[in-house]
Amino acid sequence: MNVLFSVLSLISAFIGVGTVLLWFRYIKKRPVFLETDSSNNGVIYPALSVIIPACNEEESIEQAVRQLISQDYPNLEVIVVNDRSTDNTGAVLEKLKVQYPQLKVITIYDLPPNWLGKNHAVYQGVKEATGEWLLFTDADVMFSLGSLKKTLRYALEHTLDHLTIAPDLYYGGVFYRAFLTYLSFAITATVMFTNKVGVGAFNLVKKSVYQEIGGYEAIAMRVADDMSFGELVVNKGYKQDFGLSGKGFIIVKWYDNLFALLKGIKKNQFAHFKYSVVTTLLICLYALLVGVYPFVGIFLGPIWARALCGVSVISLFAVYNYLAKYLNISRSYVVIHPISVLLYIGAILNSMVKTISQGGIEWRGTNYPIKVLKKHIRWTKE
């Protein structure tokens, strides 16, 4: 058994510590947007259209719209697409439209074939947009004052075509925030290797680039539309950057609790891996080896193998220590890291099994066959 533990420790340390070192090199190059005052420095801001798809968002849409319109950004229009809502979203939007002339409301009653609901809503919103830049966001995203100016200024100064930002979503109980911390680490580690990313809370793109790459029509049936849009930008040769929101800069209350989060991400985890069973299982094996085994291996095998696992755990602590400087988390969450990994593996496998057994996914009351979803992935690649 000592031979087995030694081999596992060697592989785990090599891959795990290597991933962490690469992650630090990558993350330190990423901009962190903080909630601080900054001068305009004579910047001429281009017209900006913010597009929000909204389906049954009566609880959050009013606050989201008011926070956006209260921004000090010149030449701003806000477009909310009411996508077949069955609650009071429409009534709330009609009230807001009377108060704010810069608010446009589009109402969708039916979903045409070969479209996912959110993707179609964004597509319709862009058709009404007049801005030189487009910002795709969600109905539960809250923007701090000055955040639009700061992000547009960054995009202009760095001659970007597309800027996407991971929001501040660290709230709730210890296990919930610990899981979100691990999820952020896992996502940024994935992006580090692909260099292609999009985040649904904040996708800022030049309208001319959006049109050149085919827009949301090109990803009409892509479940992970935000990531798919980011991939499309890079694949077409345009310049992209990925940043992080500091505490309070861009805030999202994603789900009410950990159970709801694990249930909610069931829809898109298998989609992130292009509905490939082999890829999904390899990712799970990698997560087990790198994220769980070191915490077990420090008690198993010869002393040097235990020491290697200790080094792996220390490297993960360094990640949490770094993130704690900018996010509303504790570095002590590293203790819960293996539990978070196991929960995430469970969510991935649940997504894969449910998608395959049901022959597709159900989203916002509409069923989408997996054969159709896979076909549209191939079309996007072509």
From TrEMBL:
Keyword Cell membrane on entry: yes
Family: Belongs to the glycosyltransferase 2 family. CrtQ subfamily.
Gene3D superfamilies: Spore Coat Polysaccharide Biosynthesis Protein SpsA, Chain A
TM region positions: 6-24, 275-297, 303-323, 335-353
Annotated GO CC locations: plasma membrane
Pathway: Carotenoid biosynthesis; staphyloxanthin biosynthesis; staphyloxanthin from farnesyl diphosphate: step 4/5
Organism placement in taxonomy: Bacteria, Bacillati, Bacillota, Clostridia, Eubacteriales
Organism: Desulfosporosinus fructosivorans
GO biological process: carotenoid biosynthetic process
Subcellular location: Cell membrane
GO MF term list: glycosyltransferase activity
Entry keywords, A to Z: Carotenoid biosynthesis, Cell membrane, Glycosyltransferase, Membrane, Transferase, Transmembrane, Transmembrane helix
Protein name per its UniProtKB record: 4,4'-diaponeurosporenoate glycosyltransferase
Function of the molecule: Catalyzes the glycosylation of 4,4'-diaponeurosporenoate, i.e. the esterification of glucose at the C1'' position with the carboxyl group of 4,4'-diaponeurosporenic acid, to form glycosyl-4,4'-diaponeurosporenoate. This is a step in the biosynthesis of staphyloxanthin, an orange pigment present in most staphylococci strains.
CDD domains reported in the protein's UniProt record: Glyco_tranf_GTA_type (cd00761)
Domain Glycosyltransferase 2-like: 49-213
Stored SUPFAM superfamilies: Nucleotide-diphospho-sugar transferases
InterPro entries assigned to the protein according to its UniProt record, in alphabetical order: Glyco_trans_2-like, Nucleotide-diphossugar_trans
